[in-house]
Amino acid sequence: MNKNVISLSLFCLSFSAVAQEADLERITVTGDFRQATLDQLSTSASVVGEARLASRQADHIDSMLNIAPNVNFSTGASRGRFIQIRGIGERSQFAEPINPSVSFLVDEFDFSGLAAAGVLFDTQQVEVYRGPQATLFGTGALAGAVKVVSRQPAADPSGYALFRLGNKDTYRIEAAHGDSITENVNYRAAVMQNKSDGFVNNTYLNREDTDNIDESAARLAVNWDVSADSSLAINYRWYDIDNGYDVFSLENNRNTRSDAPGYDTQRTNAVSLKSQTQTYAGDLAVILTHASHDIAYGYDEDWTYPEFHPETYVSVDSYFRDVATSTAEIRFTSSPQAALFSGRTQWLVGAFYKESEEDLLRQYTYLESPFNSTYQPTTKAVYFDTQTQLSEGLSLLAGVRIENYAFDYVDSDGIENAYDSDMTGGKLALNYVQGRHFWYGSISRGYKGAGINPDSRLPTGQRFYDAEFNWNYEVGYKGHVFTPDLTLRAAVFHMDREDTQISDYQIVKREDGSEGFIDIIGNAQIGTNRGIELELGWQATQVWQLQGSLGYLDATFESYTNAKGEQVDKREQAQAPSYTANIFSELWVAPDWVWRVDVDYKDSFRFSDGNALASPSTTLVNSEISWLLDAWTATLWVNNAFDRTYYTRGFSFENDPRQWDGIAESYYQLGDGRQYGITVKYQF
Q1: Motif span (TonB C-terminal box) (predicted)?
Q2: Is 582 left (phi over 0), alpha (psi -120 to 50) or beta?
């Protein structure tokens, strides 16, 4: 642990916090079954509010994930849409099927595995839940969950318009408005467009926009109070993401030579309906959603052009997906009158159904014909949750979810497979409250379904992998320490993973001398993830607030036979930095001027379970100064102020035709360089 980490850790322990408010009790979360505040959750969680998101000029969830301790992400695409929590999560996606380890939700929509839809607009807050969340979200939440919460319709008229201008031909236009239509019907509508040329210069095509960002989105929400006891909410979301993907160069810089730059696009239409009815016995909620996604992802595999080396390979790899997902959930929450055991036990019961169809078309230079597959996963679950007041300050939470996970898979290589299994998870937690102090201890169990490796070149023994289970043991504290101006959230956890799913690969040598990848998921017998998460906040003076976070993680797997047939006794898990930290300072230098500084730290971590290539430790500094005048806010901002070079994905293989000598080279996807600009917002 170097001096920089020690200094950063001490600073975090002295001042920090992820919570936007100094008083934890003001932060309401939406991802729990019951409406609760952050200090009432028996789990380690972070909530990033609207003002904090704005201070980072956050366009996408990858812009804010570094705030939360023990959270990481990888790109391998135009955005950092592959999330890891406590070292567990996916790092890329090529062929189906893939089962997410981190649930990703936007309001009522389950977009797990589709986090390109994580663009942020008209956002109230982003919630990050660490550790298994099986009772709440089922098989997609082995590691945790991320939820984006939008602003909801209200009777009082409100809205805003925002314009941002930055270098790299960057601009963002965003607007939202809400009001009442009738006495019982309210609406809120929002639109957004976000564009940037990106940081890549394609020297072959003489273009600076081959790794561009071009994202548009809109939403419409309508809430209807049907009667005094019932309500109906309808939400529609639309996304049009048309991003480029041209990031790798033979020299590991921002100058590429691709003659066929890649793309990362997604078009989504999604609608949800939620009805709530209050009865004497409790509240009945019914939630229905449907979403269709048209996704295209492709890249120039050789990273060059034919004339660069006429005797070597020219290859393009493209994936086209049509994904349709429907969900249905019914949930009944007891009222005080229906509480059990003399009113001491509140209870909740629910059922959940989800079906998807994912049709894949892969067009690849080295395939004799296009590859097609159809993957149809289905989830059926029932769950039960209780909260029992044992004494004045002591309560017991118990939840269980029984889930049937099944899928059918068929592809053009003649591979067919059907899977059907029941899995059980849940949580048991003991909470103690004394004034503004909250302690908890919990045991939770998560799970993740089995799957198939579709590449027909694999032997039968590597074709299938088993389901994974995760036991999480955790103790934590939330509340004030020393003074009312200093708040703390702390958690210590130990996770035991059974049949740990490992993302591995094989490299195959082709006749033309080039190398190709076969992605493989296998199982290690043992996985251990343990660590500490701290979030503190200090209102130092009336005009100066300090926030931040610190995460420590020790994540390893054992007893694994890799794709090469080698025995791995013990190894660090990929995408699992030992230390993550964030510091945030907000200083009002005058009544209408505020200066903010945001610092992210991430320790070194391995990119892959299959090789030792690692990202070096990284410290990024963002800053802004804002001027507030009545309804107007003008902000001068800079992200990555010191223009640090950092990496968001890495590979080790031969891809330079000038050096095909049997020695693997290291290649990296670079994170964004320095970006600066001005943002103007008008609220009405």
Answers
A1: 667-684
A2: beta
Give the type of residue at 152. Answer: Q
Structure confidence by residue, pLDDT tens digits, 186-226? 999 999 999 999 999 999 999 999 999 999 999 999 999 99
Q: What is the mean pLDDT of residues 264-278?
A: 97
pLDDT for 5? 43
> How far is residue 537's CA from residue 546's CA, in Å, rounded to a whole number?
6
Q: Can you give the length of the chain in residues?
A: 684
Look at the alpha carbons of 135, 137, 141, 147 in this order and tell me if their dihedral is positive or negative: negative
Q: Pairing relation of β-strands 28-29 and 170-180?
A: unpaired
* Secondary structure class of 431 (helix, strand, coil): strand
Question: Cα separation of 36 and 30, whole Å?
Answer: 7
Q: Which helix (DSSP H) or strand (DSSP E) does residue 488 occupy?
A: strand 483-509
Determine how many CB atoms are found less than 10 A away from the CB of residue 589.
Answer: 11
For residue 363, CA distances in Å to 73, 299, 368, 371 come to 27, 11, 10, 7
Q: How confident is the model at residue 26 (pLDDT cuts 50, 70, 90)?
A: low
Q: Angle at Cα 120 formed by Cα 531 and Cα 328, nearest 5°?
A: 80
Gyration radius from the chain CA atoms: 25
What tokens were used for 56? Answer: 């980072």
Q: Is the model's pLDDT at 7 over the cut of 60?
A: no
**Closest listed residue to residue 426, CA positions, set 680, 138, 162:** 138
CB under 8 Å, gap of 24 or more: what pairs does 34-42 form?
Answer: 34/333, 34/346, 34/348, 34/387, 38/478, 38/489, 39/436, 39/438, 39/478, 39/479, 39/489, 40/431, 40/438, 42/397, 42/427, 42/429, 42/430, 42/431, 42/440, 42/441, 42/442, 42/476
CATH of region 3-683? 2.40.170.20
Q: What percent of the chain has pLDDT over 70?
A: 95
Instruction: Please count the CA atoms within 13 angstroms of the CA of 599 that sit on its side-chain side.
Output: 19
Arithmetic mean of pLDDT over the chain: 91
Is the full-model pTM beyond 0.85?
Answer: yes
